[in-house]
Amino acid sequence: MKRIQGVDIRLARREPYRLPDEMNEQTLIDLPPETIANAIVTDGTQANAGEAERPQGTDTAITVYLPRSWPWRSLRGARLTIDGTDYWVHGDPHPVRTNLTPTGYWPVGVQASTRKA
C-alpha cells in the first residue's frame, strides 16, 4: 500500500509590526520565508464552491493542505511558492479540529491563487 507523499513548499508570511505608524495603523512586515515539507497540493477546481464559500472570487487556482507538523500561525496575506510559482492565500485559514482522515494528518486546507487577493 502506497502512502500519500507531499511536496516541499515555501511560505512567506506577514505580521503586524509592534508599534503603529504616525496614522495609528499597524504596519505589516515581511517575515523570512520558511520551507514546509510534506504539503499536499491539489487543483482548486475539485470543489463545487460558489461565491458564498469564496468571497474573494470563484477562480481558486490551488488548494494546499499543510501538515500537522507545521505549527499553525496566521496565514492572512501570506504567499506560497510552489515549483517557482507564487500563490496568494485567500482569507485566514485555520486548522480543522477533527480526528477524521486525511484531515487528521493535513489539518489546514489553504485556498490560494496566482491573483493577489
Automatic annotation (TrEMBL):
Protein name: Phage protein
The organism's place on the tree of life at top rank: Bacteria
